[in-house]
Amino acid sequence: YAKLKGKNNYQFYTVELKEKLEKKMSMETELRNAILNNELYLHYQPKFNLCANEMIGMEALLRWENAKFGNVPPVEFIPLAEETGLIHSIGDWVILQALEQMWEWKRKGYRSMKVSVNLSLVQLRQLDFGKKLAKAIEAYDVDPTLFELEITESVMENVEEILPTLEEIKSIGVGISIDDFGTGFSSLSYLKSLPIDTIKIDRSFILDLIHNKDDEAIVKSILNIGNNLNLSVVAEGIETVEQLNILKELECPIGQGFYFSKPLSTIELEEKFLK
Ligand code: C2E
Ligand code: MG
Ligand code: MG
Ligand code: MG
Question: What's this model's pTM, rounded to 2 decimal places?
Answer without folding.
Answer: 0.95
